[in-house]
Amino acid sequence: MSEALDATFQDVFRQHYMKLLNYAARLVGDEEAEDVVQDVFVELWRRRDTIVMGDQILAFLYRSVHSKAMNWLKHQAVANNYSAAMLQVYECKLRYYQPEHSEVLQRLESQELRNEIQQAIQELPEKRREVFCLSYLQGMKNKEIAEALGISLRTVEAHMYQALKFLRERLKHWMLLWALFVAKALSVWCNWIVF
């Protein structure tokens, strides 16, 4: 029984370590991310006899990483002065929401548009921004987000709806310019093919 449990633990570690490390790095930075994820796996190992390694293990791991990361950030806020720690939190969040993390946004060549999108994302309420980024930047499904954050699927859907509605409204002038650019590029391309 113990060998089977050890093998299961190793499988869970191999399957999820890198995903959890990336998630932690976006919360606390690269230097602390490994410690956070290792702490989570050490805790999982200690509690291996009481934790069922079933379908819910990924949600448990994401929630544990999030909790450990937030605890680390809180500890930093106490250890340092409050404003320095908050600056670090905001810098980590800014790195997390950089357009380079999304293939769609990588293709956009306008730095001004990137800045506008980044600013619009930053204007979202914290929980809504977290849900939006987990979906669009991390590629997580709504159900996975609900499990990872400990909220209902309906709440995730509501956050996504509100985030997209806000971003659509906030960026509507850019969407019009982008559509005009694409239309112009297509007409030039079509004229080139005809002649």
Keywords:
2 domains; Rna Polymerase Sigma Factor, Chain: A; about 80% helix; Tscrpt_reg_LuxR_C; RNA_pol_sigma_r3/r4-like; 10 helices; single chain; Arc Repressor Mutant, subunit A; mainly alpha; globular; RNA_pol_sigma70_bacteroid; disordered C terminus; RNA polymerase sigma-70 factor; about 200 residues; sigma factor activity
Topology, element by element:
Elements lengths: L1 H27 L1 H17 L10 H23 L2 H15 L6 H4 L4 H12 L3 H11 L5 H8 L3 H18 L1 H23 L1
Describe the structure.
Belongs to the sigma-70 factor family. ECF subfamily. Helix 1 (2-28) crosses helix 3, helix 1 (2-28) packs across helix 4 (82-96) and helix 3 runs antiparallel to helix 4 (82-96). The model is unreliable at 102-109 and 185-195 (pLDDT under 50). The chain has helices at 2-28, 30-46, 57-79, 82-96, 103-106, 111-122, 126-136, 142-149, 153-170, 172-194. It is 81% helix and 0% strand. It has two domains: 1-86, RNA polymerase sigma factor, region 2, helix turn helix motif (Rna Polymerase Sigma Factor, Chain: A, Orthogonal Bundle); 97-195, Orthogonal Bundle (Arc Repressor Mutant, subunit A). It has 195 residues and is mostly helical. The radius of gyration is 21 Å and the shape is globular.
